[in-house]
Amino acid sequence: MVSIFIVDDDENLHQVYRSFFTMKGFSVVGSAFDGAEAVELFITLNPKPDILLMDFRMPIKDGVTATKEIRGIDPASKIIFLSADETAREQALAAGALSFLVKPVKFVHLLQAIDTLLTKH
Amino acid sequence: MSEQDHQDKFQRLVEAADVLIIGLDARGRVTLFNQKSEEVTGYSRDEVLGKSVFTLLIPTEERKEARQRFKKLLVGEKPKFAPLTSWMTKSGVQRFIRWKTALFTDTDGQIREIYSLGIDITKQREAEEKLRKNEERFRVLAENAQDVIYLYSIMPERKFEYVSPAVTRVTGYTPEEFYDDPDLVVKIVYPEDLPILQGALQDPASFTGPSEIRWIRKDGDVIWTEQQSSVVPDAQRNLIAVQGVVRDITERKQVIDEMERARNLAEFLVDLMAHDLNNINQGIMSAMEILQHDSSFPEPLQGRLNDALSQVERSANLIDNVKRFQRVDIEPVTLRRIDVYPPLQSAIEAVERNFPAKSILITNNIHERQYYVTADQFLSELFFNILHNAAKYDRSERVTIDVRADLTSDERFLRVNIMDHGPGISDEEKARIFSRMTSRKTGVKGSGMGLTLVGQILHRYGGNIVVADRVDGDYTQGASFVILLPKGEV
């Protein structure tokens, strides 16, 4: 079962992502509402999640910083950036995100990105 | 030496002299008229000798005064300064002569003859007059200028030599207040800008470019001024003064500040919309997609759900266009020579991807490296918007769009004609479709922001666009968008 870690400061999005992934048979193993919480939680997770969905603009610590830190902890972590701010694309990819999707993202495209990461990386 | 010898020598001297020499008897009749006098007046000696100098040579309006002066001479009154008279030449031209006069008396003391040496100072007078008129003109200019014109002496002492009256309008202080207090200029400078002015006073040579300095007006208001000055050296190249112009740019600064604030606000609003609304769109879209995948969701309502989803996509597209619009507006214009083919091809492929439910056929006669234009990274955006609109408004499942390009007859522009088979654009709408704001006011529907964006991009390039009917006279057969792009120079 594919394990997913959701990082986003929007509680509503957590709910819809979780509903969808559960419906698709994925396992949501972690939820964080800011970058700092994401890093803290990621350290404790064992095994590490297959996929991390990362927002950009979040309180305390943004998604780019959190991505850098998580990739520092586990260089094999697969992070998909999900942001409404397209200008963050370069920073996110430079920080170690493997994919960048601009919100609003259709689930079909999100699933494609997850599939690509799981099969090619 | 005989009397005759004296006479001959005197005559030769008189003739050789480069000054006018005339002799007059006690009645003002000419007794001597040398060669120089002939040259200056145009009269020959024979025409003048024995005639009254007043009636022949002195202009009518000066005769009375000249006669009075002459009378005073005869009674022994010496003029305080060398008199200046004007003479009319034979051809009617006025000449100005400065005179030095000597009197010769007979044995009983009666004045027998008057000899006068004259220098023609007409050219000097004209030059002086010209200079005077020029000075007057500059003075009028300076006195009436909206900008402050000044001359500030550095050596031997610091003081204003001249400040134009505009200084009162600009600073509230009169020119006299600046003349009385050479330090006033330092006293009224806005404290933060004082180092600029002090630097200028210590090293005026470095203060030649335009610089902006704030002043505190007499009424306490802070104003912005732009200074343009130059240094004035003396003959030994020592710096003795600074002269310049001070312009009140407060209003200009306020407009720039307002624009900056408006731009920041616009950026903030676009960012707010792009980020926060798209996060909301994400929530709505995801929730509806879950319903789509939920087998318990009533089948008859699936259509409504799809409609709602397409509205969310429309909202996301609108936000996307606003972001593009802003990008075109704020990105600096750096045009370069671009091959038209790659951006056009990329736009065609994007449009084909955007309408998976339609069969899109876009034909074009442009090859790679065939046509070059002067443009930038927004060229593909330009093509995309026109092609996308053409595909969007063509309701048929098979959409055909033809793109044809050629050079204009003067070869200054590449003409790209994009012809669709959509519903066309009526003549009334044609004039308005490139302006979003106009469209809003006049109620033309459907233009969205795409064509406004196209107009904005073409404005960057110095290009143009016109819309016509694909089939002349029948707009319902589809539209033809003719884009003129400046040809790329090698």
Structure notes:
With 121 residues, chain A is an alpha/beta fold. Chain A has one domain (3-120): Rossmann fold (3-Layer(aba) Sandwich). Chain A contains 5 helices and 5 strands. In chain A, helix 2 (35-44) runs parallel beside helix 3. With 490 residues, chain B is of the alpha+beta class. Chain B contains 17 helices and 17 strands. In chain B, the strands form 4 sheets. A 5-stranded antiparallel sheet of chain B has the order 2-1-5-4-3. Chain B has a 5-stranded antiparallel sheet with strand order 7-6-10-9-8, sandwiched between helices. A 5-stranded mixed sheet of chain B has the order 12-14-15-17-16. Classes of the chains: A alpha/beta (121), B alpha+beta (490). The A-B interface holds A 10, 12-13, 16-17, 19-20, 23, 57, 82, 84-86, 102-107 and B 271, 274-279, 281-287, 289-290, 293-294, 312-313, 316, 323.
Descriptive labels:
A: alpha/beta; Rossmann fold; five-stranded parallel beta sheet; 5 strands; B: 490 residues; alpha+beta; Beta-Lactamase; 4 domains; five-stranded antiparallel beta sheet; 17 helices
